[in-house]
Amino acid sequence: MSEQERDAGLLGTYLQDHHAAASAGVDAFRRVAANHSRADVRARLEAMADQIAQDKESLEQIMELVDANRSVLKDTAARIAEKASRLKPNNRIVQRSPLSDYLELEALTGAVHMKSLLWKALLELGNPRLDALMLQQLLDRAHEQQRQLDELRAGSARVLAGD
Questions:
Q1: Is the pTM of this model over 0.90?
Q2: What is the pLDDT of residues 101-120, one digit of tens each?
Q3: Is domain 3-161 classified as CATH 1.20.1260.10?
Q4: CB-based contacts of 30: which residues, under 8 Å, 6+ apart?
Q5: How far is it, in rounded angstroms, from Cα 55 to Cα 118?
C-alpha cells in the first residue's frame, strides 16, 4: 500500500467516525429539543437540529468527494450508544430530572465542538477536492451553534445550585 493510499484510508476512517457521531448527534438534538423542560430552549434546539441534519448531509457530500464510504456498523453503534445514554441514573425513577436538561446541553455543546474540529481539520488539510469556502461556512456555523448552546447551557446552570 502506498503512502497516498494509506493517507486516503485514514481520512476515510476519520470521516466515518465523524459521520457516526453526526448520526447520533442528529438523534440527540431532536430528542433534547423534544424533551427539554423550557419551551424557549426547545424552540431554539429544534431549529438547530435542522442545521445539524444539514451539516450531516454536507459531511456525506464531502465523503463522496474523497471516496469515503459510510460505515453502517459505526453509524449503528453510535446511534445505539446515544439511545443507551438515556438510561443514566439521575436520582429519579419515574420522571425526568432537572439535571438532565443541563447535562444534555453540555453534551450537545461538546458534540458541536468536535464537529467544528472536523471542519477545521478539513480546511487545514487543503484537499483540492474540497470546497474551502463551504468548509469555512460550516466552521462558522458550528461556532455560532457553540455560542448558542453555551448561552442555553449557562442559562440552565442554576439547576446545579438546586434552584
A1: no
A2: 999 999 999 999 999 999 99
A3: yes
A4: 49
A5: 11
